[in-house]
Amino acid sequence: MNSDELARLQAKTPQQRLLTMLQQDFKFAPKIAQAILSEAQACLLGPTQSPRAGQMSVILLKRDAPHGQSLCQTQTVEVLWTIDAGPEDQAVLDTHGIPACRQVRIQRLVDEALAQGAVASQEDLARALQVSVRTIKRDCAVLHAQGIYLPTRGNLKGIGRGQTHKALIVGRWLQGETYDQVAWHTHHALSCVRRYVQTFVRVVNLHLQGFPLTEIALLLQLSQPLLREYLAVYQRYDDPFCRQRLQEQLSRLTAPPALSKKGAR
Q1: What is the C-alpha separation between 79 and 115, in angstroms, rounded?
Q2: Residue-wise pLDDT tens digits, 145-160
Q3: φ and ψ at residue 2, rounded to 5 degrees
Q4: How many CA atoms lie within 13 Å of 33's alpha carbon, on the beta-carbon side?
Q5: Which of 96, 139, 232, 264 has the most CB atoms lying inside 10 A of its own CB?
Q6: Domain boundary among 138, 156, 174
Q7: Which of left, alpha, beta for 56 (phi over 0: left; psi -120 to 50: alpha)?
Q8: What does DSSP assign to residue 60?
Q9: How many CA atoms within 13 Å lie on the side-chain side of 218?
Q10: Does any domain span residue 8?
Q11: Over 238-265, what HEC string results?
Q12: pTM of the full predicted structure?
């Protein structure tokens, strides 16, 4: 098939028909027409990333959507929620029980919503976890009593006025608790605790190298609110003991890989 034949086939697709209509009938510029097409495809076909086992696609309100509007007039975002994290959730369930497992899931869901530009309400969480709103309110009160900030639709605030569970976990580790101790005290799986701390160390390493926030977010695939929170933790625990504990991890991260005996000279 030559280039002319390929061009003619592409011109007959529904996508191209809509682009032509937007440009000729509605007088939109080509870039604006393409943006409208992309947004329409995202809304009608859903996210390009397919849900994995334990995940589901949900429609949530956009993070910066103003309050006071009717829901039909408020901007929404389609996000992927990890309802069941598999072995990590099972470890919490086996060790701490059903309420603790549900509370860990609540923390994960509000974080995932925020990272994808959305914000969840308590009703959204109740529907996803198949419990009553009263149960979600009770769980949120328990987490709040532990000093954990949940950025839900009802109490979304700027980072700095509260700490999410990730910041609290990293703070406990910096102050000397082992991974096992942090996991037990926060009712999180050991693998989660280890991952949060290792991510925090990578964030600090790039920050010390002078990388701007936007580049760190791109390199580590993290949201900027989470990065700002991790850097706030880094600045908050600036004492000799915490610096030494962090430096040990930074040294391991930046150390060159050891040569195997076979490759050593």
Answers
A1: 9
A2: 988 888 888 776 544 4
A3: -85, 175
A4: 16
A5: 139
A6: 156
A7: beta
A8: E
A9: 5
A10: no
A11: CCHHHHHHHHHHHHHHHCCCCCCCCCCC
A12: 0.71
